[in-house]
């Protein structure tokens, strides 16, 4: 979240789109009802299903799953057309006036630089026109035909109300109401917040869904202000922390990059990831990259990292391919992988195309499952016979089950969606022989070192050099020790650092994760603070826990006031310039020693300091979002450009295209979602949760049910090109067929529920049906829009 949970109470309009906070974030949703009760806020919900969030909404609009970009680009067009734009904000704080290169083009659904064979873009033309000093050219008059504002206007112009409704199925009356409510926040004294999660990310254009919303928020001047922002609601309790810590295969902690094959040496690597300013006088905060990175290397390798050995750079693995989940399952499936560590994931239930995952696990030599529960993955062989002729006894994969503790059975820090690092204490002792993950992994490292010492082997250096010396017990580093290391230390004085502004690139500071700097200083554990005083009444509680970065609660907050430092809305003051000084209720997201004009570039992580309507080379499929159909489309065409139907830059692993179904065979859209009564697949092991929602089901609308002769409670078979499952029908008014491109499109819904190893009724997870094709940037699978058929099951 750019903002944080409590801040939602400051919103004038709350938009829940691409998520279902009332069910999946029921505690945080309390701040939505707070805004409605005490701030007269309006709640807008846009979702294919009339869900529990919709039940409380002032305005609900249905849309076809996978069409949010058309919806939001149409909204952008409406805002520009009706002049409901925060022009002062757009002028001062966005790249609207920047000029784009002459060779940039968009035609018939494709941007310039597309290579059909590799399904990738050469992105050179998606860039600013530069002057002789390397700075981006701007045209403050907005007359230049290639300034971003004119390109944006042109790009969204195609998305008029009828076109949008024709693609999304949203009735025009509903669409107009949503547009008017959101548009009402373009004035200085109103703000809208957008709350989203999987309804936007689980698509082949997930990242562009979120970009489309960011465009709307920039047009309205809603970023960096109280009650506004771009607010991703995170899933597992510490998934924010896991992402911060470099969970993704190409990241290092603190959103630094894991080097790839092209980063041949340290100097090249630092040069590739340290941006140069794109306008004069910019903060360009990533210019500090070398300080963050070298300090991280000191934390990784300790005294073994020296200037002479490039601070251990050469010991880091260099990636050649994106080894995300679907890629490595595909490699296993093709027999290219020996062993697989599954730590805190239930791959069989949660990951796409279950039958392929099952087949892949059968090809391993060994599988290690680290989990407190006996998950379906840890007994995968029991199901393997279901879809092929392999008998469980023929499967050679050796399985090791290492029972771990659960997060509540150890102390540590959990980072919530609002970036708060909250320390927690052990709630209970773990049962049986379970061990904390850190103890298991350290045990493996110690054993590997022993083996290398005794037997030798290739590439011993990283195993030998990794810095474990500081831990009291190298077999089990404690949470406190790791937290202090992540905060960072001045190696000359041995003192904890106060902030990442003290980091150096000469090896004299050590810091595991620069954004966490300040969380454990000489004054102690800032994450354990529990003072909830809110003196401003605006939900800013600096004495509660630690909010990265720098205990800042609202990111980009320089944008809450104008170029001269005067708050756009006095009631929404976060920082202001007063009597020759900055004052504020939050830590300023800029250098507070600079006068207003010199700090008037709030997006300090961008080398040009402004928000981007045109996102340059950031994303795989284009610098502007564009509507593409889901890979499995119920209408078989793209009404905007029939030649480019789905995302052209999607990665298609070998053989996957044949696993995609067509609308003639599988006519219904299927979407999958969470239930309040269960947490993913763990709580099927919990008796009370199992009683409250004992079995899975499929939701379908009354018209489709009548057409198929299906009554409420009937057993039905749901099938996709990849597999099928049996479940019970729940016939509901919550789903309605939508009129799309001249036809009625029906959506069916499957909850994330099921499994055969817990206490609920045995069933297959919805992932028997899903496809592994994913977002072109993140590879997150298209779990929310794929095609199925449904039929009454006879004789059950
Ligand atoms: N009780 C409970 N809480 C949970 C979880 C749980 O299992 N149970 N899971 C946790 C996890 S890991 C996560 S990631 C979060 C998930 O949190 P959410 O993303 O809020 O959860 P979902 O139910 O997957 O999906 C949200 C909504 O997206 C809608 N949707 C589907 N397709 C589209 C689309 O194309 N456009 C739009 N606008 N909406 C669409 C669905 O109908 C659904 O109502 O929840 C977390 N919280
Ligand atoms: N079709 C479809 N598929 C989906 C989704 C969807 O909406 N639709 N949602 C996706 C999303 S957002 C997510 S996050 C994934 C979730 O996918 P998973 O993460 O596979 O799902 P969980 O059931 O939450 O499994 C987490 C496991 O971690 C274990 N665990 C808990 N604490 C600890 C610990 O301290 N250490 C270790 N080692 N293990 C621990 C739990 O016992 C549990 O088995 O599913 C994805 N799959
Ligand atoms: Mo999640």
Automatic annotation (TrEMBL):
Residues 670-786 form the Molybdopterin dinucleotide-binding domain. It comes from Shewanella pealeana (strain ATCC 700345 / ANG-SQ1). This is Formate dehydrogenase, alpha subunit. GO terms for cellular component: periplasmic space. Belongs to the prokaryotic molybdopterin-containing oxidoreductase family. PANTHER family: FORMATE DEHYDROGENASE-O MAJOR SUBUNIT, TUNGSTEN-CONTAINING FORMYLMETHANOFURAN DEHYDROGENASE 2 SUBUNIT B. Keywords: 4Fe-4S, Iron, Iron-sulfur, Metal-binding, Oxidoreductase, Periplasm, Selenocysteine, Signal. Its cofactor is [4Fe-4S] cluster. The keyword Chaperone does not apply. GO terms for molecular function: 4 iron, 4 sulfur cluster binding; electron transfer activity; formate dehydrogenase (cytochrome-c-553) activity; formate dehydrogenase (NAD+) activity; molybdenum ion binding; molybdopterin cofactor binding. It is found in: Periplasm. PROSITE patterns: MOLYBDOPTERIN_PROK_3. Its EC number is 1.17.1.9. Its main location: periplasm. It is an enzyme of class 1 (oxidoreductase). GO terms for biological process: anaerobic respiration. Residues 2-376 form the Molybdopterin oxidoreductase domain. It holds the Pfam family Molydop_binding.
């Amino acid at each position: 979240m750019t903002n944080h949970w409590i801040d939602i109470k400051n919103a004038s309009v709350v938009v829940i789109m691409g998520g279902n906070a009332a069910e999946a974030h029921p505690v945080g949703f309390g701040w939505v009802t707070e805004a409605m009760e005490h701030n007269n806020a309006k709640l807008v919900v846009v979702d294919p299903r009339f869900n529990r969030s919709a039940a409380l909404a002032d305005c609900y609009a249905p849309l076809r799953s996978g069409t949010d970009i058309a919806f939001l680009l149409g909204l952008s067009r409406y805002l520009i057309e009706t002049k409901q734009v925060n022009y002062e904000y757009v002028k001062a704080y966005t790249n609207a006036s920047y000029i784009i290169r002459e060779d940039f083009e968009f035609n018939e659904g494709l941007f310039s630089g597309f290579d059909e064979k590799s399904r990738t873009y050469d992105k050179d033309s998606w860039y600013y026109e530069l002057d002789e000093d390397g700075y981006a050219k701007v045209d403050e008059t907005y007359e230049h035909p290639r300034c971003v504002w004119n390109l944006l206007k042109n790009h969204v112009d195609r998305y008029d109300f009828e076109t949008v409704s024709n693609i999304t199925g949203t009735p025009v009356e509903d669409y107009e109401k949503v547009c008017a409510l959101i548009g009402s926040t373009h004035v200085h004294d109103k703000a809208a917040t957008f709350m989203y999660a999987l309804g936007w990310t689980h698509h082949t254009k997930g990242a562009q869904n979120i970009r489309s919303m960011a465009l709307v928020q920039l047009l309205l001047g809603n970023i960096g202000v109280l009650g506004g922002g771009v607010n991703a609601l995170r899933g597992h309790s510490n998934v924010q922390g896991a992402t911060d810590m470099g969970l993704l295969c190409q990241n290092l902690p603190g959103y630094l990059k894991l080097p790839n094959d092209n980063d041949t040496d340290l100097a090249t690597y630092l040069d590739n990831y340290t941006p140069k300013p794109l306008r004069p006088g910019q903060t360009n905060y990533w210019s500090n990259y070398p300080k963050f990175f070298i300090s991280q290397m000191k934390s990784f390798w300790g005294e073994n990292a020296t200037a002479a050995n490039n601070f251990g750079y050469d010991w880091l693995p260099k990636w050649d391919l994106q080894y995300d989940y679907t890629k490595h399952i595909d490699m296993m499936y093709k027999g290219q992988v020996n062993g697989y560590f599954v730590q805190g994931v239930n791959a069989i239930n949660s990951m796409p195309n279950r039958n392929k995952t099952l087949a892949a696990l059968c090809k391993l030599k060994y599988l290690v499952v680290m989990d407190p529960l006996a998950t379906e993955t840890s007994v995968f062989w029991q199901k393997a016979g279901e879809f092929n002729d392999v008998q469980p006894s023929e499967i050679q994969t050796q399985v090791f089950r290492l029972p771990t503790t659960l997060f509540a059975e150890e102390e540590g820090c959990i980072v919530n969606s609002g970036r708060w690092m909250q320390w927690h204490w052990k709630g209970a002792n773990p049962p049986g022989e379970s061990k904390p993950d850190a103890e298991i992994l350290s045990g493996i490292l110690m054993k590997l070192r022993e083996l290398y010492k005794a037997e030798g082997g290739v590439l011993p250096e990283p195993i030998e050099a990794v810095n474990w010396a500081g831990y009291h017990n190298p077999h089990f580093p404690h949470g406190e020790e790791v937290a202090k290391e992540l905060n960072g230390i001045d190696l000359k004085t041995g003192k904890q650092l106060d902030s990442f502004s003290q980091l150096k690139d000469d090896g004299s500071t050590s810091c595991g994760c620069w954004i966490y700097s300040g969380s454990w200083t000489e004054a102690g554990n800032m994450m354990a603070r529990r003072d909830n005083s809110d003196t401003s009444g605006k939900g800013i509680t600096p004495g509660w826990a630690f909010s990265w970065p720098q205990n800042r609660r609202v990111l980009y907050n320089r944008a809450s006031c104008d170029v001269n430092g005067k708050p756009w809305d006095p009631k929404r003051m976060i920082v202001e310039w007063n009597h020759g000084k900055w004052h504020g209720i939050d830590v300023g997201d800029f250098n507070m020693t600079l006068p207003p004009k010199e700090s008037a570039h709030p997006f300090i992580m961008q080398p040009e300091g402004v928000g981007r309507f045109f996102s340059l080379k950031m994303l795989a499929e284009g610098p502007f979002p564009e509507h593409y159909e889901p890979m499995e489309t119920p209408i078989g065409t793209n009404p905007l450009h029939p030649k480019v139907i789905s995302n052209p830059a999607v990665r298609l692993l070998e053989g996957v295209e044949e696993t995609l179904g067509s609308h003639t065979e599988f006519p219904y859209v299927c979407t999958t979602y969470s239930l309040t009564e269960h947490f993913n697949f763990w709580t099927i092991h919990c008796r009370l949760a199992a009683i409250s929602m004992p079995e899975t089901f499929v939701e379908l609308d009354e018209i489709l049910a009548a057409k198929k002769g299906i009554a409420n409670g009937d057993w039905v078979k749901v099938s996709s090109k990849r597999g099928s499952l049996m479940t019970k029908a729940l016939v509901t008014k919550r789903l309605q067929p939508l009129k799309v491109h001249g036809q009625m499109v029906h959506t069916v819904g499957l909850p994330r529920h099921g499994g055969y190893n817990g206490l609920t009724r045995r069933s297959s997870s919805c992932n028997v049906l899903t496809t592994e094709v994913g977002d072109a940037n993140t590879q997150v699978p298209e779990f929310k829009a794929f095609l199925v058929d449904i039929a009454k099951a006879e004789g059950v």
